[in-house]
Amino acid sequence: MFRIGAKLYRAARIGGSAVSDFRSPSTRFFSINNNVNTGFKTNPVALQMINYALSLARAQKSDESYAQAQLVLEQCHSTQSDESAKGLVMLAMSTLFSERGNFSEAIEKLQKIQDLGLSTLANPQFEVPIVTIRHMIAVAASEALAGLYLESYQDDFSSATADMCLQLLETIRLEIGGGGSDILEARAKALKGLVELVHGNAESAESFFEGAQGDKGCFGNVALSFGEFLHCKRNSQMARELYQRAMQDVSERKDFTDSQSISACNMNLEETLLGATCALGQLEAHLGNFDDAEEILTAALKKAEECFGNYHPKVGIILTCIALMYRHKAAMEQSSSLLIQEGLYRRAIEVLKAPPLEVEGVVATRSRRDILALARGGYAETLIVQQNRKAEGEKLKQWAETAWTSRRLSLAEALESSAKVSVIDTRISRVL
Question: What highest taxon heads this organism's lineage (predicted)?
């Protein structure tokens, strides 16, 4: 791995490219247009090394491949003098750590980016201050940090990080003279809106999403988070439009030629596409369009398996969504699909790596707790109606109710087609 890093470093010094020696990934994860007039300029070889490392990790999806990728990134980081390139490398490192569930290491890398501050990330080469890649990196780091805090149920930290992102936006405005920060503003506000929605503060969330649909920054994570808010408010038509916008946008930006798409960890473009697809499938299920819902959720499942592997918790989350879709379908059509539901719930619980029932829900896990509660709660309902398995079902139900944390709706409301609709956000593994 160090030979790979050295080879790429030598290429940087002679102006060549060593990446052609390796199999090119189907998706380039970072690719910045180095036109000086845009303000987005960084070392192209650093980007090549990042692309190679991410491709290497995800090709095998093994502990060894991820460890090798981290070695490449460490080598890349050690050879960079440009702070923006170092920031991009640390975003990539944090993303790989988060994909393997190592949130503490991912958070540490993101905090180091924050510690750099805008003074270090400032770009003195432009006579007229403009939004630069340094600003994008700083906002992306805050966005990813809040996302990881949400996924690990560190809600106070997520709120503080979202507030810091808004403060960062004000600093950027002062630095560049106020103009040109529309996209960063949309991202910062959408992040705060998502945090408030997770915390059950729908009215507060609305204030941050207000007017977002008309903003030029309403794409990617902004469109997805706003769509989820509208979905929870049962504004189905607009939610569908925003989900589709997020999906289309990510598909168009998947080669990362636009530095406005810089993102990391559970807020990166792959996660956004998966989240928007899954959310759209849930929406169609809530509307009773079960054929469409099944097709969309199946596509999301396939995408999750391709990106993360068959046994990644993200796969378990989507299996839970599919099981809930069959539950809603059976209730609406007054039919029975107990065997299908039971099989899906059992598989989801296995992939989610659920703790033994003897471990109480409140201390069972720091991530995916509500998803596990939904899966076990739904599974319990399929058992309770079977006389010989009722006791087992009651035990599962009790565990699920203890584990449930949502402040906006109860577990029973989330499982049933009630006045309140639940939306599972696959990015942060939370129920909205």
Answer: Eukaryota
